[in-house]
Target: Exopolysaccharide biosynthesis WecB/TagA/CpsF family protein
Amino acid sequence: MERDLDLSFPPAHGATLSDDDAPSTWTPPTRPTKHGIRTSPRTRQLLGSRSAAAAAGVWRHRPAHEPQSLPRPAPSGDDPAEPAGSELRPPLRWARATVTVAGFDVHLRAYDGVVDEIGEASVRRFGPVMAVASANLDHVYHFGRGGLAAPRAMADTGVLTWLTLLDGIPIVAVVRGRTGVRWPRLAGADLLVPVLARAEQDGIRVGFLGGQETMHVELRRVVARDFPQLVVSGYWAPDPSEVDDRARSDELAEQVRHSRTDLLVVGLGKPRQEVWIQEHGEQTGARVLLAFGASADFLAGQVKRAPAVFRETGMEWAYRLAMEPRRLAHRYLVDGPVALSRLVR
Model:
């Protein structure tokens, strides 16, 4: 079921949009030099050309650890999430819509529009906490219709509200087929760099929770190199037993609160990260919590992300399975088919 459609399509023929109709935008960080003010070279490298991104309706960046540019919608008929011969329209930057897929809501956004939304929520000092998750087949398995974790998490409470973003080629295909709009795939690994760049500019305090301490060593180095002005409030590497223990998780949430974190990147894996955010997110004092799985591991270079050709053809799962067969075999070969059957049911 589709609802809450807001500016998903371009204006009707003959209609125009003035600059006043568009939401506020932001520019990359600048630094003084002997020649005046210039944009940080690293930020230009991360974010790429703003004019080209605006024309395409997406962000693109080329960080040193991920040389490929962000995936863009492939030409009609070449995109595995689009039927051959389709004429789907891209969403406007500030377009918003909600659809129900496999028993849970998916919130549809344009790429740079959601970066704006996350940045604005991170500095807002009132209203509910924003929790962000990714809707892929693993999410369908745990939180969709019949999922065992569904009763425990992903519920708007008034003090915490979920933004569940489109991820995973099968779900992208279902949503595009229903709406007739080329909604982009918004994987956490693609969003993390522009979100951190926005945080660097706006003075947003960012914390990282999850992963191994050895990964955090490399993550600190990468963050210091790529985001030298980013205020990092802390790194926390709890083990699973600590995360699953209510009292110890309360202590962990209080540590985050004392650090005055505005935006917390949570990488505990599904469904643990969503359940933890549901139960402890408001307690952390963070305004935004990102359930972004292995995104920080990708950023740190501890886990190699699938090359763009795999991501753009819907075969990222096969690449990751080949790289980590023991850890991911059950997820992709056992849970995956179950989730797919729920999705198409």
The first strand starts at residue 2 and ends at 6. Residues 96-300 form a domain with the Rossmann fold fold (CATH 3.40.50). Residues 4-78 have pLDDT under 50 and may be disordered. The chain has 14 helices and eleven strands.
